[in-house]
């Protein structure tokens, strides 16, 4: 069993409109935009990152907003709902705030004894705000104060037809079964970061998901260093998984492999971090480009849509 994985690092999804996506995460949810860059493989498309003050691993939601992308179809073989941690007692305030912004899909429930506010993003992407004891410092602003600020990820749901193989993989990655409620089993990394839970939901008769706007593209798990990442890669290869070589993503190093249920997993390093090319006080304010796309700067500054206004 691996001991290197700490919990979630980031979650990356697809969107259909960059300005709408930016407004939702900054103005409605009150997160900080910590990086404005572009897709490595499609530099005419933004890659937007949202999180806490420093983009701490375990807080970072990222998006590829492909203009006018067709909406994905929900189903099995995907991360279906991403959950954020909020202060105990703040769920009603969040319910009221989301309603004031006419957010879709608002509902409230309790899972594993924790109060949740469920809601949809602009492309039908599904989220939850979960009341939990969390000592992380939230980013505050845009009408969201510390008393209700989002601390980072709480957990993520994987929707699967047959969860056994993925449960075995999670166990190999250092997760332990914590509890089961109905068709949902919760796994946790003991002693991990504050985003160290995965909920596996079984939907035996559901159709397979179709990826598009509102779909999670991949879910990334955190390791401290490149050395720990190489240990994880070697162990996964030895177990029979097809794992990519290490890829430099600028702010972290990444490896990818497909989990048995179809979800794309990434293992990402905490180093070097989002302050490698701009100071923490100025994160997310200017367009940052991978070195291989720097020659496109003048064109991209003309053609990428403005995010504000």
Quick recap:
With 309 residues, the chain is α+β, with helices and mostly antiparallel strands.
E-strand count: 16
Give the CATH topology.
2,3-Dihydroxybiphenyl 1,2-Dioxygenase, domain 1
The average pLDDT score comes to 97
Overall, the morphology is: globular
What CATH architecture would you give? Roll
Strand content: 25-35%
With helices defined by DSSP (H or I, 4 residues minimum), what is the helix count? 5
Radius of gyration: 18 Å
Within CATH, the superfamily carries the name: 2,3-Dihydroxybiphenyl 1,2-Dioxygenase, domain 1
Structural class category: alpha+beta
Order of helices and strands: EHEEEEHEEEEHEEEEHEEEH
What share of residues is helical?
Answer: 10-25%
- Taking pLDDT < 50 over at least 5 consecutive residues as the criterion, the unreliable ranges are none
**How many domain modules?**
1
Task: Please write out the topology.
Layout: E1 7-15, H1 18-28, E2 32-38, E3 46-51, E4 60-65, E5 78-86, H2 91-100, E6 107-111, E7 114-120, E8 126-131, E9 152-160, H3 164-172, E10 176-181, E11 184-188, E12 197-202, E13 216-223, H4 226-239, E14 247-248, E15 252-258, E16 264-272, H5 297-303
Parallel strand pairs: 1-4, 5-8, 9-12, 13-16
Antiparallel strand pairs: 1-13, 2-3, 3-4, 5-9, 6-7, 7-8, 10-11, 11-12, 14-15, 15-16
Report what the structure shows:
- By secondary structure, the chain is α+β, with helices and mostly antiparallel strands.
- It has one domain: 2,3-Dihydroxybiphenyl 1,2-Dioxygenase, domain 1.
- The protein has 5 helices and 16 strands.
- The strands form 2 sheets. It has an 8-stranded mixed sheet with strand order 2-3-4-1-13-16-15-14. An 8-stranded mixed sheet has the order 6-7-8-5-9-12-11-10, with helices on one face.
């Amino acid at each position: 069993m691996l001991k290197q994985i700490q919990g979630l690092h980031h979650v990356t999804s697809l969107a259909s409109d960059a300005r709408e996506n930016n407004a939702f995460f900054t103005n409605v949810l009150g997160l900080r935009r910590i990086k404005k860059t572009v897709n490595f493989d499609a530099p005419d498309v933004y890659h937007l990152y949202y999180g806490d003050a420093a983009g701490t691993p375990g807080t970072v939601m990222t998006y590829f907003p492909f203009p006018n992308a067709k909406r994905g179809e929900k189903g099995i073989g995907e991360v279906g709902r991403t959950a954020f941690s909020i202060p105990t007692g703040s769920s009603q305030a969040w319910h009221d705030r989301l309603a004031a912004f006419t957010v879709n899909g608002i509902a409230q429930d309790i899972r594993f004894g924790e109060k949740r506010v469920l809601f949809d993003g602009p492309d039908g992407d599904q989220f939850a705000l979960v009341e939990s004891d969390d000592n992380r410092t939230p980013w505050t602003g845009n009408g969201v104060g510390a008393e209700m600020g989002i601390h980072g990820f709480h957990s993520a749901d994987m929707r699967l037809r047959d969860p056994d193989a993925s449960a075995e993989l999670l166990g190999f990655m250092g997760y332990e079964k914590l509890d089961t409620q109905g068709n949902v089993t919760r796994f946790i990394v003991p002693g991990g970061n504050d985003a160290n839970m995965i909920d596996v939901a079984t939907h035996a008769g559901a159709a397979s998901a179709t990826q598009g706007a509102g779909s999670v593209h991949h879910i990334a798990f955190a390791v401290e260093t490149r050395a720990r990442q190489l240990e994880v890669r070697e162990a996964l290869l030895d177990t029979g998984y097809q794992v990519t070589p290490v890829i430099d993503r600028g702010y972290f190093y990444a490896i990818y492999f497909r989990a048995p249920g179809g979800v794309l997993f990434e293992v990402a390093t905490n180093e070097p971090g989002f302050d490698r090319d701009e100071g923490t006080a100025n994160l997310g304010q200017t367009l940052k480009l991978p070195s291989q796309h720097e020659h496109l700067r003048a064109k991209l500054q003309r053609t990428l849509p403005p995010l504000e206004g």
